[in-house]
Inverse folding.
């Protein structure tokens, strides 16, 4: 037997990436199990406790209305499994009231029938399917990345737009470096691991939490930005819809939420079509555009002259660079998802990652070049991609096709966040850094709590920023590159620790990736600080602090409630007065208190219920006036004065406060006694009738909730129908 | 022994108008007392129940921190009165936590120290004090009544304004008739009685409820209209404040609410000053104005020509008449308040009523005449009274004086509603027509619930109508004259029933009053239907229907819970299986159910608590997967398997629904068993930590609340500090 804390460290071995509904029920440590045994050996109960008046297998009541016998009716809500085990059927989840059942049916209709845990999808994807599934987030970024870069440059006037080419070249270096760096992550974590797990594992919990905070902001912003950009692709084509941009974006977020609550695992080929369509469309756009430019001898069209609003400075160039870097968001998707590949998983994953980065570079460079050659300038009412498509395909079906493909791929990119954020929250909840309810898989196997949280935050941001993509971008780069930096710095540590073959080269590659990411991170944080990045710069440490507070709370609860703590705190000795935190039945002393307002059936039933337990019982009557108190005493005597009665005269006509104070006073007199207050209450049929009755029990419970050793309950009395 | 309903009729003898905090505790009927005795004689308890482990007088614990002895410390929260009686001191109402105590101190600061019930004010007023106190509502009405009339006439163009004189003459007849009629009410109900009591008593409950509904609307509108008119008096003098009219009105309502929650009985002389000031100001205004007119030879100034927007019709004239009749609101105040007069109460009350009506007629006629002679026309931005004061006193302090007096007297008029509506709700709650919480006197002896309801409704109306008095007037007349009509029709019935000396003459006078009131009522309802009176016409029957539903609910509860019903429904026979509604302890069969998620101290304490009661107990574990369930069983066995355990496998990972269903199934198998579910729960220190824990008990309780015989409670476990 060690101290109660000796087994905490066992909790985080190598990070596991499998999802299990049992994660809500963490196992007990060996020390706790031993303590349980010690406590159990001292447990004394009388035999009546095991003499159940019912069959716990509820077999005879499974079909109470079927009086014809023969057991041919529909199965009951519970099916026997083994002795002591019952399996709940869907019937056991059904509501008991007509409105409850109607709500259940509506839910089924919207979200589909519930799914068993065994249905957790463990689909394996060939590379050509994995590519579109995992790249929609990354590739869709080119729909807004170049535009973000040019918008910054335009601040220095249209003359500065020519700088887009060297900046794009620098970004290509960044993309390749980060891509190579992530190839190593895939190799090192063949079971898949996002930045949170890598940084936690290789640097430490705080680094992991910082990466997680960055990623959480990133995912929320991915939804906001992608949905806003997708809506912008639509409104660029149909300008009449422009005033509806915000409601449209909210509707799309709602649809994504509903789809993901339904637990729709969008099958690979559903993803494949629009992503390949987008790819084909943009590649076609680039090819045709370059052909047209070649016909003009690659002479750039001079952009429409725009006056400078600020001077061209290194700061501005860096800002443009950081904005353009948002084209890389989503590059980490493959490293999260290694297990979905066919064996050898890490090898296939690396291949797909290489393809993705290659395509990204081609699209990004091609689009930036074309925009330059055509002299296009960012406009508030039409995206650059839309302008380019209009210019390149003035007629024919190509323009709408490109816009539809863009909108679709952005939608799928937003969907990626709906897949990934709840998983991240799950891993964090498993480590007790966020509320444990994020561990819960809904009846459609979706992490409903995480999904709803994500949709709510994204919707809030869309509304707050009026649905305008560009203004969200400053918020974006900081979170993304924080996660990139920490994850790759983690990899450097990983190699240093494991020192396999060629670890220096690997560490070096990841180090360069980390360094470049850090440069972008700092650039973004500094240059865009005033524009909104300060929000993220503030939010990350705040979130980390919050995560740590949550963890501390859970740790305190676990330590305080551990059976070992019970053994240490209350060495059970015979003959010693019991304790408020008694964990053995023979230590518990009872006092029941029944507040009685009038001697009606509700009160009589409560008194009978409590009296039948055979424990010391005290009735309390709170009265505003002596005259009323006397009258009540007369009633009490007429009934036979079976239970001791104490009357509290409350001259200021307050009821609950003196009652709570009295109960606390009783308990203070004998801290070894557990006081149970049972309040008679009437159960009304309709919610509106609740205003007609006092809700004493609720208020009393609130008034005494900070005092240990007081149990408050109500004894419900139902009106006959 | 009669049926359980045999004593219902005893409840409404002659209406009592005294207010008592004991009204919340209606006495038991003789039948119920006898039934109590019968039930009590069959009550069997074991002796432990009376063996209390504590002193219910809490004497030894009164000052737990005072270890120096000698008992010289401050008194404890409870003082012994007689054996079995404790008196709660203010200390017993104090919160237990620092924020609770701070809230209590803030409350004391704002509302003052609590008042004992004996402080209910039973002040007697001399006539010269009663006059201003009771007449502020009535006399203040002349600040908006003539204007309301002229606003309607102006619709037919400025030429129609001359009709104001004949209409005013008709209104004077109405005022005198209604005044005489109310003189009779004062005589017939010397203990004071509002329209609700008179109509209930003399016609029947539904008539009383209709009058009450009208009065409730009237009181709410009095606050809205008076406050809006008071603010208009201020903004007429200080036009820069006009855009702030609504916030100003809301602030005034808030102040009135706070003052009345404080229970400030504004002493007579506080009322006297501004009412007499207003009286003097308006009488002065009329006198000086008539003097000026006499100097012009009483030649009316032609009003500024205003084009007609509709033709002059009988309907329009009737509408103007009904609008002008709002000048009479408040005329019923004396009949409510007869007991506040010095003896002989009814005689003094009649005298004051006569004075009031006389003053009303003088002011109303004088103002209408002066407005006509000066050719004034209602304007949106300045009240007629303000225009008149400006015209009559172009210089000097008179104009602001009149405006201030008007604003003050309107404020006091609104305050009248704050006095009267909660009283009306009290009388209705005593008859079970509105929620019983309106019976409750707050710790400042104010009917806090009624006050808050009134302020909230009035504020809502002010906001909805943008604070514009004139648009509220159509809503006003209908409710007032409905109450007048019913109350006076009730008087006719009263005389017919009692047939004292001269009853025919009296009935005749009241009949004329009722008839004229009914004419105004119908006129107002018909002519102003489209303008908003339809709201009141709809609201009155709706309210009456609501009152009757509330009454029916309370009646059902009382009948169902009456001890007599228990005797009838469950004749206790020895050896017969017990009943879900068992009212004798020997009939109660227990089953305790403890849902256990993990075997930590919270669960162990709950199991110990329940086990120590020595009643049949079943532990239930809901698990998402067989694997987790097996692991839990192993823990259970390690502990010693002291209590039967049933495991429910919930393949869809739902927890509360199958648990609720299981408990219901257990109970359905043995309807004679009371199932008590005790849920282990952790009590967190800060509210934000609640999101970190499941609130299973709350959800479970909601899921089973419709099933009788199931008690759900939580066993709180506090974290050590």
């Amino acid at each position: 037997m060690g101290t109660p804390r000796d087994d905490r460290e066992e909790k985080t071995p190598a990070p596991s990436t499998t999802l299990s509904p049992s994660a809500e029920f963490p196992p007990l440590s060996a020390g706790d199990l031993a303590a349980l045994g010690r406590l159990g050996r001292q447990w004394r109960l009388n035999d009546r406790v095991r003499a159940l008046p019912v069959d716990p297998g509820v077999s005879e009541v499974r079909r109470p209305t079927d009086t014809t016998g023969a057991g041919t009716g529909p199965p009951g809500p519970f099916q026997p499994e083994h002795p002591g085990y019952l399996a709940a059927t869907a019937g056991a989840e059904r509501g008991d009231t007509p409105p409850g059942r109607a709500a259940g049916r509506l839910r089924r209709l919207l979200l589909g029938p519930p799914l068993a845990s065994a249905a957790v999808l463990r689909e394996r994807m060939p590379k050509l399917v994995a590519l579109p599934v995992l790249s929609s987030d990354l590739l869709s970024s080119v729909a807004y990345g170049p535009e973000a870069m040019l918008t910054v440059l335009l601040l220095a006037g249209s003359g500065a737009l020519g700088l887009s080419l060297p900046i794009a070249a620098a970004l290509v270096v960044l993309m390749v470096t980060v891509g190579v760096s992530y190839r190593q992550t895939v190799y090192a974590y063949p079971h898949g691991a996002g930045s949170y797990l890598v940084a936690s594992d290789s640097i430490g919990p705080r680094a992991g939490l910082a990466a997680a905070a960055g990623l959480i902001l990133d995912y929320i912003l991915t939804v906001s930005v992608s949905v806003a950009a997708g809506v912008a692709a639509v409104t660029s084509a149909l300008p009449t819809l422009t005033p509806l941009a915000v409601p449209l974006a909210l509707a799309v977020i709602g649809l994504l939420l509903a789809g993901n609550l339904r637990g729709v695992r969008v099958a690979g080929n559903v993803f494949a079509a629009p992503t390949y369509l987008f790819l084909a469309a943009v590649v076609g756009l680039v090819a045709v555009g370059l052909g047209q430019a070649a016909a003009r001898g690659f002479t750039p069209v001079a952009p429409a002259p725009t006056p400078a609003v600020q001077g061209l400075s290194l700061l501005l160039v860096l800002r443009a660079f950081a904005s353009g870097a948002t084209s890389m968001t989503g590059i980490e998707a493959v490293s999260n998802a290694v297990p979905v590949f066919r064996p050898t998983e890490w090898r296939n994953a690396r291949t797909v990652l290489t393809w993705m980065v290659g395509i990204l570079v081609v699209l990004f460079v091609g689009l930036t070049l074309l925009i330059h050659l055509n002299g296009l300038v960012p406009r508030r009412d039409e995206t650059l991609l839309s302008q380019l498509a209009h210019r390149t395909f003035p007629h024919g079906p190509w323009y709408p096709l490109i816009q539809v493909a863009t909108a679709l791929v952005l939608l799928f990119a937003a969907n990626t966040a709906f897949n990934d954020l709840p998983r991240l929250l799950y891993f964090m909840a498993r480590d007790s850094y966020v509320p444990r309810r994020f561990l819960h898989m809904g009846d459609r196997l979706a992490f409903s709590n995480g999904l709803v949280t994500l949709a709510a935050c994204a919707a809030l941001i869309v509304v707050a920023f009026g649905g305008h993509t560009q203004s969200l971008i400053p918020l974006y780069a900081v979170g993304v590159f924080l996660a990139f930096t920490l994850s790759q710095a983690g990899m450097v540590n990983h190699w240093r620790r494991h020192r396999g073959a060629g670890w220096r080269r690997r560490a070096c590659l990841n180090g360069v990736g980390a360094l470049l990411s850090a440069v972008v991170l700092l650039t973004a944080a500094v240059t865009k600080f005033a524009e909104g990045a300060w929000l993220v710069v503030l939010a990350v440490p705040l979130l980390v602090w919050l995560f740590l507070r949550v963890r501390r709370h859970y740790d305190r609860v676990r330590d305080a409630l551990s059976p070992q703590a019970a053994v240490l705190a209350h060495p059970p000795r015979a003959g010693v007065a019991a304790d408020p935190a008694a964990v053995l039945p023979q230590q518990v002393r009872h006092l029941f208190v029944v507040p009685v307002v009038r001697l009606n059936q509700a009160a009589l039933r409560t008194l009978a219920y409590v009296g039948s337990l055979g424990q010391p019982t005290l009735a309390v009557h709170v009265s505003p006036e002596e005259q009323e108190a006397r009258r009540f005493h007369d009633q009490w005597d007429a009934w036979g004065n079976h239970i001791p009665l104490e009357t509290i005269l409350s001259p200021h006509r307050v009821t609950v406060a003196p009652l709570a104070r009295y109960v606390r006073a009783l308990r203070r007199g004998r801290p070894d006694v557990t006081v149970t207050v049972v309040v008679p209450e009437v159960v009304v049929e309709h919610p509106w009738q609740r205003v007609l009755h006092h809700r004493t029990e609720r208020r009393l419970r609130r008034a005494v909730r900070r005092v240990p050793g007081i149990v408050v309950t109500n004894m419900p009395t139902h009106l006959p129908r």
The radius of gyration of chain A is 33 Å. Residues 585-718 of chain A form a domain with the Rossmann fold fold (CATH 3.40.50.620).
